[in-house]
């Protein structure tokens, strides 16, 4: 009779573990700093490579993309500008970076320094950036908002 009780307890324990595992697998993915930084790296690489598919995948449908000039673009305009515009990034470096996470949203701040070309002429970029990433309904991290700003001289 003692063996039967142990067997029932083991079966109950395995059942509880299985239910807990199933419940936690339906929970929303949790953001972490490394995930955010990997997504940012993919985004920067896609901008440099003018990779339209990756840019579309990494940006929210309702993206708000602000430039240091004050110009604001929606997703389609931003992607088209990166892919077909006269300004092209050659390299991007992000310094003084901070990542703050609140549930399914991450706020990234950094100083962006870049080499680029503008209508074929060499250009340098040195601006402040704030970016807001979120996990979408499919637990995929996307850029929701970005605002660049001029740094004090």
From TrEMBL:
This is Nuclear transport factor 2 family protein. It comes from the Bacteria. Keywords: Signal. It holds the Pfam family DUF4440. InterPro entries: DUF4440, NTF2-like_dom_sf. It comes from Flagellimonas pelagia. Residues 38-136 form the DUF4440 domain. Transmembrane segments: none annotated. Residues 1-23 form the signal peptide. SUPFAM superfamilies: NTF2-like.
């Amino acid at each position: 009779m003692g063996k039967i009780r142990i067997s029932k307890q083991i079966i109950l324990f395995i059942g509880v573990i299985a239910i807990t595992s199933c419940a936690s697998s339906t929970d929303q993915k949790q953001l972490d700093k490394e995930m955010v930084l990997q997504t940012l790296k993919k985004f920067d690489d896609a901008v440099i490579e003018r990779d339209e598919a990756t840019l579309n995948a990494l940006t929210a449908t309702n993206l708000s993309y602000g430039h240091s000039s004050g110009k604001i673009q929606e997703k389609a305009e931003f992607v088209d500008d990166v892919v077909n515009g006269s300004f092209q990034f050659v390299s991007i470096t992000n310094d003084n970076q901070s990542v703050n996470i609140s549930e399914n949203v991450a706020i990234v701040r950094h100083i962006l320094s870049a080499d680029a070309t503008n209508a074929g002429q060499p250009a340098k970029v040195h601006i402040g950036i704030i970016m807001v990433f979120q996990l979408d309904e499919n637990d995929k991290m996307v850029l929701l908002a970005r605002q660049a700003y001029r740094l004090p001289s």
